[in-house]
Amino acid sequence: MDVLTENWSLYGEGFLGTVELTVYASILALVLGFVMASFRVAPVGSLRAIGTVWVTVLRNTPLTLLFFAVLLGLPRFGLVLPFQVFAVLALGCYTSAFICEALRSGINTVPTGQGEAARSLGMSFKQTLGTVVLPQAFRSVIPPVGSTLIALAKNSAIAGAFSVTELLGTYKTLNELGYSIIWSFVWIAVGYLIITLAISAIFNVLEKRWGVAR
């Protein structure tokens, strides 16, 4: 317990840093994922192409490489922002590709007749998607979206290698102070466990309330 009690502020700062990264990146991932999922099922070919390229590139790019591209590449084009913002962009964009595919799979579970009936009533694509398809699809995508955001929380550990304050990065300071590396990692693991269990609990509540009964 000495590692934790004697470095409570250090662990707390790292824990809050990971929580902030997870929350902001999750919001960005959900927004971008929703937009790209809409593009993927849009009747306009150019929008489908944009969505396909977005998903294909990001899903097949290592997250560490994406961090390098964002944190080291964007400043070369004159975009200078705090490293934490760059980390949120990298995590959010990367995860949005997986959110997109989860949403698209949910959209595909909605019977085609539902959309056809909506269009026969004169509803536009936007109205059909927003009022008929997505509300039904949402119920079936709660578990996969929750799993994706849990993965995002764990992926945030990469940000520590780019001077971003987060939980895993605390081990460097603790190691320099001479604390046991094993117990340092034990308490880091406990911190990640708390975050992932919190996300899991939130999505369990959502699933019990709105999920599809099996």
Structure description:
The chain is an all-alpha fold. It is built from nine helices and no strands. The model has no long low-confidence stretch (mean pLDDT about 85).
Backbone CA Rg: 20 Å
Largest sheet: none
Number of DSSP strands?
Answer: 0
Strand content: under 5%
What structural category characterises the helix and strand content?
A: mainly alpha
Counting H and I runs of at least 4 residues, what is the number of helices?
Answer: 9
Note the quaternary state here: single chain
Which residues form runs of ≥5 with pLDDT under 50?
none
- Terminal CA distance: 44 Å
| SSE order | HHHHHHHHH
Task: Compute the average pLDDT.
Answer: 85
Assign a percent range to the helix content. over 70%
Overall form: elongated
Protein name: Amino acid ABC transporter permease
Subcellular location: Cell membrane
Family: Belongs to the binding-protein-dependent transport system permease family. HisMQ subfamily.
Membrane topology: Multi-pass membrane protein
